[in-house]
Amino acid sequence: MTATEVGKILDDLQAITEEAVARLNLMNEEELLQLADQREELVKALEPYRPDITPENRTQIAHILGFDSLILSRMSFLKNEAGQWMQKQGAIKSQQNAYHNAYAMNSVFIDHKN
């Protein structure tokens, strides 16, 4: 019974991982977060069966883990893209502030001619 439970969990984990990798370049931050949550749930479900994992299961786990570098690469790309956007927004805001200084309405400007 436990071997079938382990197999089902690993099959589900492999299916969602391979499906995600197939459309990885189209996935946004929310979808990647959802994928990470789903994978975490399946790994937690697998934990009680750890002593029952067979060599075949270990091979399947290694296959699934082989996709992690691709997924992490996509996450890193999106993180860097968001960071660049934030920097650009900061630069735009500082430039706008330079042109749109708030002046005091009650101030007086005196020009002395010599």
Description:
- With 114 residues, the protein is mainly α.
- The protein has a domain at 2-71.
- It has helices at 2-22, 29-46, 55-65, 68-99.
- The mean pLDDT is 85.
Q: Nutshell version of this structure?
A:
By secondary structure, the chain is an all-alpha fold. It has 4 helices and no strands. It has a domain at 2-71.
Q: What topology does this entry show?
A:
Blueprint: H1 2-22, H2 29-46, H3 55-65, H4 68-99
Helix pairs in contact: 1-2, 1-3
Question: What are the key terms here?
Answer:
about 110 residues; mainly alpha; 4 helices; about 70% helix; about 0% strand
- Taking all residues together, what is the mean pLDDT? 85
Order of helices and strands: HHHH
Query: How large is the share of residues in beta strands?
Result: under 5%
Q: Which structural class do the helices and strands define?
A: mainly alpha
In angstroms, what separates the terminal alpha carbons? Answer: 100 Å
Report the major sheet: none
Strands, total number: 0
Helix content: over 70%
Low-confidence stretches: none
Radius of gyration, in Å, reads 27 Å
Shape: rod-shaped
